[in-house]
Amino acid sequence: LVPSNLCLPLPVLQAAHCQMIKDLSACLLGQSLRVDCRFENKTSNPLTYEFSLTKDNRKHIIQSTIGVPENLYRARANVTMHKNLVCLYLQSFTTSDEGVYMCELKATNDYTGNQIKNITVIKDKLEKCAGFSLLIQNTSWLLLLLLSLPLLQAVDFVSL
Description:
alpha+beta, disordered N terminus, Immunoglobulin-like, Ig-like_dom_sf, 4-stranded antiparallel β-sheet, lipoprotein
């Protein structure tokens, strides 16, 4: 037990923006909605996130490491994290899922508060997701090799 009259010195922590949301976009991937939350990360501290939907003036948490997701969305939603990208996938997206989607990020020990960005999602106005957007961002030597195979085969064919 610590005596109640004991003073413990607390270090003054310098506030600094550790991450900043750069872009929030949405697209249709088959029957699923994909919401991409791109951010700039200036720390290696763990990142927490929350995706929510505001419709009829009510906030519904879809997926989160900050709050508790609603049952209605929990079974249909999943989140993937890449280097500077957090993606929400909402399966069986319908017009009843339309509204203002919000991405909220917080880096552990970032004392400047959460970063928040909104996007209005209307099914008829959504574009189809580009198939290569994630692949281009995380291009690996294997992908480059696979993409260059037809070219190598063509060169081989010409030399015969």
